[in-house]
Specification:
There is one protein chain. The protein is elongated, with a radius of gyration of 21 Å. It has helices at residues 4-21, 23-46, 59-101. Helix 1 packs across helix 3 (59-101) and helix 2 (23-46) packs antiparallel against helix 3. The chain has one domain (21-101). It is built from 3 helices and no strands. By secondary structure, it is mainly alpha-helical. The longest helix has 43 residues, at 59-101.
Length: 102
């Protein structure tokens, strides 16, 4: 027996699955989470005066660190959103199979 909440999820996923599969959508939505994930790293590098024994960071190193942080943000955003899409797709298929059996 499929509950009302499961039926609502099936309807929602039928309407939104193609939109959420696009890479641009995944990147746009996931960037905020990726930024929150990488923000502490960025802040600790930019404001390194709080830790007196930290070695000096030159401008060239800052550029490399920023490129690395940007890579972390994009990777985390895409990886998280694709994983979320796959989990929702798996749940959708399980619910459709459960609905077919009944």
């Amino acid at each position: 027996m499929i509950t009302d909440q499961e039926k609502l999820f099936i309807d929602y996923w039928v309407k939104n699955r193609d939109k959420q599969k696009r890479s641009f959508y995944q990147l746009a939505i996931g960037l905020t989470v990726g930024l929150v994930f990488a923000l502490p790293i960025l802040l600790s590098v930019l404001f390194h005066d709080w830790y007196k024994r930290m070695s000096f960071i030159s401008n060239a190193q800052i550029t490399v660190i920023m490129i690395g942080i940007l890579g972390i943000i994009v990777f985390f955003a895409l990886f998280r959103m694709r994983f979320k899409w796959e989990a929702n797709e798996q749940l959708y298929k399980e619910l459709k199979y459960k609905e077919q059996i009944q």
